[in-house]
Design goal:
By secondary structure, the chain is α+β, with helices and mostly antiparallel strands. It has helices at residues 11-21, 30-38, 83-97, 112-120; strands at residues 2-5, 42-48, 54-63, 66-74, 102-108, 124-129, 139-145. The longest helix is centred in the middle third of the chain and has 15 residues, at 83-97. The protein binds coenzyme A. Residues 21, 71-74, 79-85, 107, 111-114, 116-117, 120 line the site of coenzyme A.
């Protein structure tokens, strides 16, 4: 499996993940994802398998010292194997290289897999946003300090991470 910067040819695969991972109301559109791919202050990482299919995607932003984890989704057949953790670690490395000192995210309080994953990766709950996703759908805000990491981000290299 390979992690790479997502390109327009990955859009179909990314949208398939959206449909697999989120309810209709929560899904991002093709247009929204296309804009994310083009934005200078965003990073979209695609995790692809041997035949090039996108099995995971994550989206990050970074402004000055604050980075954001905006989205992560992994195909249901590939979950529990560390795909999301690898994508998020790569995003943290990218943000650190840009000078970010913190990464912030919001997640639904009832999304146990995501909250569990973020906690395991060092994100702490810092506040609650009531009705953030609609009536009765609260968000927990989580923050992770960005400290020295073992990886690195080199924009000149269309780099790849190989995993087991
Ligand atoms: C959240 C999501 C991205 C995790 O992807 P993943 O590739 O399975 O995650 P990883 O394999 O890297 O990490 C698994 C970790 O998630 C956590 N986790 C998974 N299922 C869990 C559950 N039911 N309850 C609590 N924690 C859980 C654990 O910390 C687990 O670590 P462990 O394997 O050491 O126990 C995936 O479930 C998904 O795509 N969900 C739908 C989209 C979504 O909700 N995205 C997040 C909001 S944008």
């Amino acid at each position: 499996m390979i992690i790479q910067q997502a390109r327009p040819e990955h859009l179909d695969g990314i949208l398939a993940l959206e449909q697999d991972g989120f309810s209709d109301a929560e899904q991002w559109s093709r247009h929204a994802w296309a804009e994310e791919l083009e934005a200078d202050d965003r990073l979209v990482l695609a995790h692809t398998d041997a035949d090039g299919s996108v099995i995971g995607v994550a989206n990050f932003g970074c402004v000055e010292d604050m980075a954001d984890l905006n989205r992560v989704v992994v195909h249901r057949n590939a979950r529990g194997r560390g795909v999301a953790a690898q994508l998020i670690q790569a995003g943290i490395d990218w943000a650190e290289a840009l000078g970010a000192t913190r990464m912030l995210l919001e997640v639904r309080t009832d999304n146990d897999p995501a909250v569990g994953l973020y906690s395991r990766l060092g994100f702490d709950r810092i506040s609650l946003r009531r009705d953030y996703y609609g009536p009765g759908l609260d968000a927990v805000v989580m923050l992770r300090p960005i400290t020295e990491t073992t990886g690195g981000w080199d924009e000149a290299t269309d780099w790849a991470l190989t995993s087991a």
